[in-house]
Amino acid sequence: MHVVVTGAGGFIGSHLVQALAGEGHEVTAVYRRSRPESWQTLRAVRWVQADLAHGAAELPAAEAVVHAAALHYQSQPRPTPADLVRANVLSTLHLAEWARRCAVRCFIHLSTVTVHGTVQEPLLTETTPVVEPDLYGATKFAGERILQAYGEAFPVTVLRLPGVVGSGTDGPWLGRVLRLALAHEPIAIYNGEVWFNNVTDVTELEHLVLRLLERPPSGYRALPVGAAEPMRLREVVELVVSATRSRSAIVEAPTTRRSFTIDIDPLVCATEFQPSTTRALVERYVRSNLGLAAHVA
Asked: Is 190 an active-site residue?
C-alpha cells in the first residue's frame, strides 16, 4: 500500500516511516524542515519537503495517509498563535482536500488528549466534553472537526494521544520523571494515589497504525489512546526509581489539579488492538534509555 506520512522529520513520524517501510509499504515521507539523515536511504521511501499550510500539490496520489505533523508549544522556536493555526488547522484542511481527490481508503490523524482541555471527570472517554482547551488543544480539535466534515468522503480514525515516549525522549511527564531519577534528584508527585495509564510509546503506535491500515474502521472515529491495566501514580514513579537504581526521594506535593485515567475500551473494540500494560510500557521506556543512565552515572 502507498502511504503518505506527514511530520516525517519529527520523532513519531520518522519512526512510523521506518516501520511502514519495514513492513513493505511504499511510503511518501513529508517533512517541513529536516529529515532523519540516518533513514534517507530506506527503500520504498520517497522524501518530499513541503509546507502543507500552503497546500498539498506536491504530494503524489496514495491509498492512505498518516497525519503525524503538528506544532505544539514545546516546538522550537516557540510558535506564535498564527503558527499553530497554520500548522494544525490549515495544513489539515489542505491534506483533507488532497485525500478527497485521491479517494484514500484510510486516513489516520494523530491528535492529542489535550483537545479536551480541563477534564472534570476521573475517566476520559471519547465523549468527554471539550472544556477550555489551550490554543494548541483548540487548533488540534479544529483539525479533528475538519476531518469529521470529510467523513463521508473517506474513513477517518483520530487517535487522541497521551504522552508519547521512546528511546531518547524526555518531554512528557514520564520522561521528566526518568530524567530526575537518572540525576538522583528529588521527584515531586501530585495525587500519588490516583490511577495512571496516560502513556504510550512509538513502538505501540507503530503496531496500532499498521493494524489500522490493515483494517480501517468505517466512518469517523475519535479514539483516546492509553495503556492497559493502570497503576497508582506513586507506583509508576517507584518503578522508575527502582529500575534505574536511583537515589531520588519521592516527595508528595499538594495540588488542586484533577487527574484522570483514559478509557481504552473504545479503542480496543474499534480496532481489535490490545495496548500494552502501563507497567510494560514504563519498563520498556526505562530499558530503552539505560544508556543514558550509564552516562549519568
From this structure: no
